[in-house]
Each structure stands twice: as structure tokens, then as C-alpha cells.
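Changelog note: in this version the structure field was regenerated for every chain. One regenerated record is shown below for reference.
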Amino acid sequence: MPLLETEQGEIFFAQRGDGEPALFLVHGAGATHQHWGLQLRAFLEDAGRVALFDLPGHGRSPGPGRSSVANYSSVLLALLDALEVERAVLAGHSMGGAIALWTALTSPLRVVGLVLVGTGARLPVLPALFEFLEQGNLAEAAQAIVQRAYGSKALPGLRKVGEAAFRQNDPKVFYEDLLACSTYDVMTRLDDIRCPTLIICGDEDGITPPRFSRYLHGHLAGSKLVMVHGAGHMVLMERPDAVNAAVREFLRRLTGGASGQ
């Protein structure tokens, strides 16, 4: 899992395979590549290459974060360029979904398909989160997020792990992530997206509620919506079985049942 030099700085990434389609997994605000940890191997049978990475200032990627979804999209495109990947399927969770959507809007020839997990065309942020971070109270911010992030069926241990992970954030980077989310809005632009799209949401998501995913589904032509019963915003970890099955089916349909491996 090396650091890769890109035009947007060094990026920590991992990949399996080198065929097509290439599937890139994009994490959300205040997160790292580890949020996709239960998906990396599962997708290898249906994707020629599966890659995950840390956005700048997150996890093991050095450098400052970014304060807009557009700038994070530039990081993703720089990573594709550095790896000489012309076109990819982009799967994004939360802010990562916003980054994937923005990339599909601004660089449509680079995107084969989209997987949007717990995201929306807008990502409003709880004002208290900005207040906590402005006061240097990262612990309160982490607790406020975790209280809304998990569904009723989530194992108690997941909440503890999630809160501990959020407390490891650089407060400045986390603040910029939230700023990027709060200023992002593509509600009137979704008709411009033409690529196949899978939308996944936990039906108890308290951060990006199901209505966000229903809006995406209603405005992205030909998209498929999968609601995961009893899961919250962290559906990737709460119900990896349901997420993995839905994404694998999507990939098989996208490729006609054959991966590039």
C-alpha cells in the first residue's frame, strides 16, 4: 500500500488486479480507506481492478485537506492519471459519493458507472458540528456524528470503533470536509449524468436520510435504488453482505458478466 506521487500531492492507495473495469472506492468526510475494508476483496470477482485510497490529510495521505468537493474531485482525477486509468467505475460513500457525482458531471468520459452509498445531491451539515470544531471540541463532534450514523441493528462495538476513528481526525481537515459538504449542491444538474448508477442507502440513515437517495433515483435516468433495512449511514460496515451483493450484481450487469481478470 504505497504512497503514489500525483499532481495533487502524494496519495496513499491500495489496489488489487490490473484489468477492467477499474473500480475506485472513495471514502467520506472524516474517514479513511478503511471504511471500504469489507468491500475490497468482495468486488475482485466482478471488477478487473479494485482500488481504494486516502484523500489528502486523511489516514496515511499527507498534506492539507480540501475545502470543496470540486477540489477533492481533482485529487481523484489526478490519481486516475497517475495510475494511467482512462475510465473507471466510481463508488463513493457520503462525501465520497458527492466526489464521484461531481467527477461524473465534470469529466463524464472518465466515468463508466457510479455507485452512490449514503449520499445525496446536497449534503447539509449540522451547524453544531461546525461549532464544536471551531471550539476545538473534536470529541463532541465525533459523538454527535456517531449518534446519527448507525441503524438500530448495528452492533454496539461498531459505534465505539466509529467514535474512536473520528476522534483521530485532524480538526482542521475535518472542518474543511464539512465545509466541502455544506457548499456542495448538484440538485439541478443530475439530468446531465448519463452513466449507469447504483444507489444504496440504509433505511435508518440519520445523516443522509433515505429521501436524499430517492431524489437521486428520481433524477438519475435508469438508476437502481437499493434500500437496506435496519441500516444507518455506516451501511458499508453495518450490512456489508447487502452492499457487496448489490454492487457485485451492478458490476456484472455493467460488464455483461465478465471481469477483466
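Spot check on this record: The first strand starts at residue 3 and ends at 6. The radius of gyration is 17 Å.
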